[in-house]
Design brief:
Shape: globular
Mean pLDDT: 75
Strand order of the largest sheet: 1-2-3-4
Number of strands: 4
Helix content: under 10%
Structural class: mainly beta
Length: 73
């Protein structure tokens, strides 16, 4: 992650999320949080500062069956 001055503020590796079989599909930063979407396990988030751990923020329920996070263009 780079800030507005193009200085690296955080480096994120897929090993920081405790699952080796994830395919990242999209990412966005909002304020001091980063959100990473994965195909297999949904949405993960973490603070951009320090070495914060990632948390899974996918709601419980039938998300895979109804594909509530699916974007169609």
């Amino acid at each position: 992650m780079y800030n507005n001055q193009m200085i690296q503020s955080r480096q994120i590796a897929n090993l920081q999320i405790l699952d080796n079989n994830l395919n990242f599909t999209c990412a966005a930063s909002v304020g001091s949080q980063i959100f990473i979407g994965t195909k297999e396990k949904g949405l993960f988030s973490s603070a951009l500062t320090g070495n914060a751990v990632f948390e899974n923020n996918t709601p419980s329920g039938p998300a895979r069956k109804f594909k509530i996070f699916l974007l169609v263009f």
